[in-house]
Amino acid sequence: MKVLIVGSGGREHAIAWSVAKSPKVDKIYCAPGNAGIAEYAECADIGAMEFEKLAAFAKEKEIDLTIVGMDDPLVGGIVDVFEAEGLRVFGPRKNAAILEGSKAFSKDLMKKYDIPTAAYENFDDPEKALEYLRTEAKFPIVLKADGLALGKGVLICQDLAEAEAGVKEIMEDKKFGNAGNTMVIEEFMTGREVSVLSFVDGKTIRTMTSAQDHKRAKDGDQGLNTGGMGTFSPSPFYTPEVDEFCKKYVYQKTVDAMAAEGRPFKGIIFFGLMLTADGPKVLEYNARFGDPEAQVVLPRMENDIIEVMEACVDGKLDQIDLKFEDNAAVCVVLASDGYPVKYEKGIPIHGFENFKDKDGYYCFHAGTKFKDGEIVTNGGRVLGITAKGETLKEARKNAYAATEWISFANKYMRHDIGKAIDEA
After folding, report:
1. What is the domain class of 119-187 according to CATH?
2. Nearest in space to 196 (alpha carbons), one of 311, 280, 98, 305
3. Which has the least CB within 10 A, 156, 172, 192, 386?
4. What tens digit of pLDDT does each residue of 301-325 get?
5. Half-sphere exposure (CA, 13 Å, Cβ side) for 361?
6. Global pTM?
7. Domain locations in the chain?
8. What fold does the segment set 2-93 form as a domain?
9. Contacts of 412 (CB under 8 A, 6+ apart)
């Protein structure tokens, strides 16, 4: 098989690494890719939103399966474009990717089909949102831009003044662009957050092992929201009881709800869960692998990823038994100092050779490129350093040891990824 991966981040590197292990695959392409993905794939200089060019490339190279890693092209309808050209593609169509593309849609879906989530209201008028906040809201409260905002369109407001500033930021100043045309105001939930990724073929769902992300930029969950500063898998808080509840009230119900709405979902559904005192509730859905969740979940998966993805495309996922190693993995993101606001690019990175032939250690590239024959930084999140261990504590120790193998001038990371493990 020839496979094309669309995207350029750490998630796509983890996907490329998984695809490269498949005996079914002879050749991998990635558009646009990065310096790490280039180890497995031939990178093509085509942007992830250039659907027509990507489809033409897939035809020219006789691609057998295209895997879309990123949210923007999925929500924009890349799958519809590929299918119209008779190309096989893994990911949801535009009318299903709305599950991530519109928080207002997903909240309304959960309310209609009785899927547990936080109480909320949707607003497309900033004045009405402000009136609600001044008269009915209980603080703290959560404001969410309706559309895609690189994982940063969520504000937790402690009081009315913060909430008023948040409405201005999202709906009036348009900090997140058109994503803020509509806003969700949501009850603030407390508890442990857990992420569960799943494969879906339109009717059948197979959940993967659990994971937990760390969204804030600084230690102790301080600082600004980011795309994710690190993850661990599995979550010790995702117990068999939680799994049983979610299988009954969340996972299959979501798949069935999308089918009932005439939006059958094929691809990845990411369930962001909050384990509250009243039981698990859905925080959010994503329509693709999480980043950096993919970097801890995929190294633990025993299945051939191509077999699983083809089963999703063909509606035969019920024939797949997903299996994961009985171990743990931790990923620590190495970022450029100043992320997620302002940071330098183009800084040389050293130490990649330390990962050669080291079983259970991975260096997934997120924001890198080649410049004058060497690999340099090319983004806020630069690398995801993943390590496995028999236990979470061992995996955490291994991952942090491996972060020392890499050096670049403005390297920054959190030092408490997986600290919650010590409290479990």
Report:
1. alpha beta
2. 280
3. 172
4. 999 999 999 999 999 999 999 999 9
5. 19
6. 0.95
7. 2-93, 119-187, 192-319, 328-423
8. Rossmann fold (3.40.50)
9. 334, 335, 336, 337, 338, 339
CATH T-level topology, domain 192-319: D-amino Acid Aminotransferase; Chain A, domain 1 (3.30.470)
CB 368 within 8 A of CB 354: no
> 380 Cβ partners below 8 Å, 6+ apart?
226, 227, 335, 336, 338, 339, 340, 343, 367
**Tens of pLDDT along 109-152?**
999 999 999 999 999 999 999 999 999 999 999 999 999 887 67
Q: Burial letters for 301-315: b for 16+ Cβ neighbours within 10 Å, e otherwise?
A: bebbbbebbbbbbee
Asked if residue 61 lies in contact with residue 55, where contact means CB atoms within 8 angstroms, the answer is no
pLDDT in tens, 249-263: 999 999 999 999 999
